[in-house]
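Cross-posting from the modeling subforum.

Setting up a comparison between two proteins and wanted a second pair of eyes on the formatting. Protein 1 (sequence, then structure tokens):
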Amino acid sequence: MAFRVISPRILKNLRCNTTTKPLKTFHPSISTAIASPSPAAATLSLEDSEQLFGSVSTKQLLRSSVVQHAMAVESLVDLGMWVMKSSVFESGVMKDLVMTTMRQTFYSHFCAGEDAAAAGRSIRALNDTGLRSMLVYGVEDAHDNEGCDKNLQWFLNNVDVSKSFPPSSVSFVIVKITAICPMPLLERLSDLLRWQQKHPSFVLPWKQDSLPIFAESSPLYHTQKRPKPLTPEEESDLQLANQRLLKLGQKCEEANMPLLVDAEHTTVQPAIDYFTYSSAIIHNKDNNPIVFGTIQSYLKDAKERLLLTIKAAEKMGVPMGFKLVRGAYMSTESKLAESFGYASPIHDTIQDTHNCFNDCSSFLLEKVANGPGSVVLATHNIESGKLAVAKAHELGVEKVKHKLEFAQLYGMSDALSYGLSNAGFQVSKYMPFGPVEMVMPYLLRRAEENRGVLAASGFDRELVRKELGRRLKASVF
């Protein structure tokens, strides 16, 4: 769940080849106490629409119903994406018309607002329904230091903004490493890290203490030949990137606000993991993870990497926080691997991905129940939610409730979100905010990624429709 733009290098290749210890009381976060679930909450209940959506306004439900039905029509989504990507969209009148329509429909449904004030209203409204927020400003990937410095200020501001909201209403501040380190440098660092994995004697003088980034099954085909060492200019840029992340980490540590690092595509993910783990070693102390990494379970090497990373962190005494997701680059990753003549790094079947997510979820819950660390289970899958709830009760909810956060995208899987919240768990919504033009890449990817899911599953649509029908009957009779 992040704002991602595919790098020019990837596109070129494709074209050429066809919780923790209780946090400080002044700003509680992931470890904030929540109500103990009743015995009846041992299973996840998603049948009673009134119970699920009782705190949601009729206006919100109507908009949700319209957007969900629209996104379930693939031809309509294709048309909308074509309009937003086409040159027609750049013209004055057409652009104004499309932007107005987007602002009132899809943008309002999936985004918190165009500025901090609007986002604050959305966060408070969400908090009133019992859900929390993961705050992310919709900055673009950066390609130079000027852009990185500008983006850093937005991320730092997010920490300040989050502290102004009601206590515990914001669970995490989100950061994109691709926004505070130039993309070309991230690609270079990833190449160098992969080459060192292939050839352990390969020396990287700039490398700081970190945790395992690769496993034996990790894809290394991106780096076909020995990369050249970083130039003096690149080393200087790397030092600046380290300083940006250090500054952000220090601010989050002082504010006791967890910082969650979003995952990206495998071309730059090694460098992102390197930054994440180096930062975690610095800031994660005393059973209190401040810096959280992201594991994408649709990757075949996900579980193996997770096991290696946690084992190394335990040896170093570093409490780790992880967000577990399925992933967002399936088509791109498969095409890129094919362009190099390799099998896709993505699991061969969706069930394999589900199995990997559920296995990693169970493993992480066991770890946090019996030791340090925290886990965010970011899923829209009902079965995964039910399995995680059952596992939490098996382990003893009291052992994990301060260390576990469920998460879904703002505007999606609301039934699951409210069901988990009603079952006594902390639940956050991933809430991007920023000007419509800036957030457009995120909206495009949301439509592209989820149109198949929304078309295939009418679960939320049916429950929303059922609740609207119930309210209509109640108002008439």
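Protein 2 (same layout):
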Amino acid sequence: MPLSVIPRRGTLLHGPRIAAFKLVSARLVGSVPRLQARVADLNNAIDSNNTNSIPPSTFNSMPIREARPPTMVRPVVTALPQNRDEFWRKVPVWRDVSAREFLSHAWSLYKFLHAVLPDEVPYDKCSSRTQTRDEFIQDVFEGITAATMSVRMTPYILSRINWRDPRHDPIVRQFLPLKSRMIPDHPELTLDSLHEEADSPVKGLVHRYPDKALFLPTSVCPTYCTFCTRSYAVGADTETVHKASLKPGRRRWEEAFAYMASQPQLQDIVVSGGDAYYLQPNQLQEIGERLIAMPNIQRFRLASKGLAVAPGRVLDDADGWIDALIGLARKARRAGKAMAWHTHFNHPNEISWVTEAAGQRLFEEGVMVRNQSVLLRGVNDDVETMAALIRGLADNKIFPYYVYQCDMVKSVEHLRTPLQTILDLEARIRGSIAGFMMPSFVVDLPGGGGKRLACSFESYDRATGVSQYTAPAVTGRDKENKVYKYYDPVDLLPKDTDGGCVDGG
């Protein structure tokens, strides 16, 4: 169960004080105490004597400013009743947690960050500027307030971060928003940039391509990517977005199943969300068996980032989810149909020996696994990193499938790259790895044009940053002969530069 926080509506951050944030459970019907127990268990491990997992408290190579007093989380109440029952202290890992801490919704995140961060955090790559620990934490909480996605990170992914230099860590960059890093949104973006809701004949089912549909049975994920293309629906409401929630529901599911069965041209279904990792085993099994039973459906894919952010689940023989997944793969094969797991790795640092063991198990069980990456500025936008990611996936029997140009969604302008970046990456990597392990580098066209090879543009003006595409196979809703435009981030349009140190944004 991951660590999750969303900002409480109407709460502001002032100076060194951090406002209260609301913990939400990993499952919409889950238990907050259960979530807090997992978080506290992680904190307890950090507080242990395992020095290999604890970053040093200072950087010898950086100028250190005088330490400031630790930032305190503002309590929910200023006066507490006497003779109160501090019942949470019965939980061993919360034995020393005060009432004020326990009643502050932000205490778990704050405690974790305060434990793992050094006294001084490098701000730029030259280490000429720093933030104090408390300034960095304040930056995070202000980023959460401005972001479209709430924060949720699993213990596994938290452990893969270099907490000595978090501003430049590729995993932090994906999952932990920093307000100082954000830049104004492009004027042409929309929250639902791919127009998924407009292409939904029933709620939670996107039918854009003639033979393929996207089924969204849930809107919860094990981690929330700050750049999520489905930020209009995924996760809890934030300060900036009221979500079009897609909670699991029998009536909604039955409407989706009925539509899929009524469309003889439909042959391929993507089950996503949210994330299939957050379906209960019986729900996963039901969805798979319903699809296998439909004569028109020949293939289905389960989309989950779980293999990248919580691979240990695949190795847990007591977990019913992985048994349901493997069982569905076997049933599909016996029915002459194909099932695959589509996962989402973006950086080689996300791969560990746990990933290797999980990948090997899935390979031995006959589960096809493919990966879809998103091209992100400062994460995987150089040849060395992207090539290492592709090879790392291939070595673990995870087939690189797509590399997406980052979608034009709110509050992620600092993560987008120009189209030229993805074109250059493909040109330089193609030929260096076997063709069947080479992903397609694609743009999911704003406005609902679907996926097109990045290099298939009709025109691309590097000076203005505007590229134009057509999508002849995507029709309906006045899409015939439509021209779709993708816009490069304004701050990376060609201009004179004097070089110098790269800022920590």
